[in-house]
Amino acid sequence: MSDGGDGNSAYGHKAFRRSKSHFTDRVTADARDGWPVTAGRYRLVVSRACPWASRAVISRRLLGLEEALSMAIADPVQDDRSWRFTLDPDGRDPVLGIRYLAEAYDRREPGHGDGVSVPALVDVPSGELVTNDYQQLTLDLATEWTALHRAGAPDLYPEPLRDEIDSVMADVYEDLNNGVYRAGFASGQDEYEQACAGVFRRLELLASRLARQRYLVGDTITEADIRLFTTLVRFDAVYHGHFKCNRWKLTENPVLWAYARDLFQTPGFGDTVDFDHIKRHYYQVHTGINPTRIVPVGPDLTGWNAAHHREELGGSPFGTGTPPDPVRPDEEVPARGRP
User: Fold this and answer.
1) Measuring CA to CA, which residue among 140, 149, 155, 158 is closest to residue 325?
2) How far is CA 125 from each of CA 27, 67, 72, 119, 122, rounded to the nearest angstrom?
3) Phi-psi category of 58—alpha, beta or left, where left has phi over 0 and alpha has psi -120 to 50?
4) Which end of the chain is more exposed for a tag (fewer CB within 10 A), N or C?
5) Beta carbons of 252 and 263 less than 8 angstroms apart
6) How far does Cα 304 stand from its chain's mean position?
7) What is the DSSP string of 83-150?
8) How much is the pTM?
9) DSSP assignment letter at 203
10) Which of 42, 157, 181, 239 is catalytic?
């Protein structure tokens, strides 16, 4: 998710275009870009408010990379220098020693001018940004970091299914992951209506697909499910009202609501979600479309833990693998952010 500050006041006043990641180096087993997979070398900087960063948080936990890849959580409410570490003592990240993620970007390329986004992977020894390529980062965690995966970790990007996974993810990204933003930040009625139509057209197609099978591709969770989940879990809380994607709520679609609850109740998904961070970020930072910065008290979150009965469709979240260990106390979502 892009930086905050003055740029957020422009949302809703000009056509929305998501910029490509500027830093696209990869951390790989063969160190082809000069960055080898090494336990303890990198720090993953995220916001629990951001759906793109939440992909990495979920993947890291499912794959059991907590000891190998440390994680910094930014304040969901940005200031004019964007993502900041005001949740930490003295307002500094305890590992990187910086107050703002922008400092790691500047160490990599001073004056790059392309904004500051999460997720970001930072090289701890140098303090430099390695990558902010949110599309590739989680795929590499699944395929390049395998030597550091926990025993029983799921294969989130199985090679025989990659073409289908890529196709599903491309459609979900265009119409839904990014579509809600095009609707929410639209500067004109036609622009908004076209984006909103795409959002609900894709949701209906996904509901038809998921009425027949438990997961998007294959019989276990994959990267495709992670990418859909991070949008669905935010839908009623922010996209329905704040982004005006309000033809219906997630809770009003029996298939998608059950699917989302199934994933939410799967270790590694719901235990990474902080609804307090999500709501405060969207409603307090996007001043271009919510100038009062008032955060709504709803929606009611208690239904997230209700029975879903999706197991009746077959499949198993981890296949022959196992669930991740319980979440670490230092990474637990505070009570105010949970249903």
Assistant:
1) 149
2) 15, 17, 15, 19, 9
3) alpha
4) C
5) no
6) 18
7) SB-TTSGGGS-TTT--SBTHHHHHHHSTT--S---SSEEEETTTTEEEE--HHHHHHHHHHT-GGGPP
8) 0.95
9) H
10) 181
> Which amino acid, residue 181?
Y
How do beta strands 128-131 and 120-123 pair? antiparallel
End-to-end Cα spacing for the chain: 24
**Cβ atoms of residues 130 and 25 within 8 Å:** yes
Angle at 265 between CA 263 and CA 266, to 5 degrees: 65
Look up residue 167 and give its amino acid. S
Both tokens assigned to 317: 């979240």
Amino acid at 102: A
Distance CA 260, CA 26 (A): 31
- Of 157, 176, 173, nearest to 165 by C-alpha is 157
Told to judge if 181 belongs to the known catalytic residues of this protein, a careful annotator would answer yes
> Annotated catalytic residue: which of 11, 42, 50, 282?
50
3-state secondary structure at position 42: strand
- What's the confidence (pLDDT) of residue 6? 41
Which residue type does 69 have?
Answer: L
Q: How many residues does the chain have?
A: 339
- Cβ 320 vs Cβ 225: under 8 Å: no
